[in-house]
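tool=predict chain=A
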Amino acid sequence: MAAIRARGLRITGKAAMIARPHTATRVPPGTKPELIFVTTKSYDTDKAMIALRPFVDETLFVTVQNGLGNAEAIAKVAKRVVAGTTTHGVTFLGPGEIRHAGVGETVLGAWVGIREADLVRLRDLLADAGVVVRITDDVKTELWSKLVVNASINPLAALAGVPNGRLVRDKGLLASLEAVCREATSVAKAEGAAVDPDELYHRSVLVARRTAANRGSMLQDLDRHRRTEIDSITGAVLRAAARHGIPVPLNRALLALVRARESAGREASHGNVTD
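tool=predict ok
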């Protein structure tokens, strides 16, 4: 926040600008927002909504966060919620500086308390800001599709320590991506999402190519010894798989490995690792 206040938010890569947003770590008194975009990590959504309780009756809340469960968490308290997905890739370079590493699609749909006019206005506002949005009437399928793509790319790239593009250039990694993707797609179908395994595999490959230079958010978190969103991504796949009795051994292994890396990173950051 201090860096953005002092120098602005520097964006390089696919988009290039210095944005100068107003910043605050507490909700300013007298604020009456028309829209609130919740962009925290998925494990912080509940805490964010505590701070945003003054606006839950009137304000339109929007989430395009990773994983499943964010829209549900917001809708526990907010009356008007739009949910969706985005596959734009962003790499954190340092305080107040990010690289727009890949252009992707943004899809939004009504979750609760939303009229079609609300979605059209939101789409037009984002278009004016340079973000092209597609409106969907099946947001559940979109959320599961994004989850499958995330589960296919993020853990593999994080554990391999490589940018997304390496996953499609390396035959072994690409085969692993496909196997993970097909496992997760079978779970999505069981949950009622209108998904096709071949289409989601090709979509995962396309996203990895479009964000080839991007170090995924999970890899960035491991690099900085921070908690990842593995529980709301791969963990969500495993929880749904358990409900339907579907075996997902590859996703289960990825979850265990990323959690182990998280734990090792926390120990290293606290100086608890010994030879």
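The mean pLDDT is 94. DSSP finds eleven helices and nine strands in the chain.
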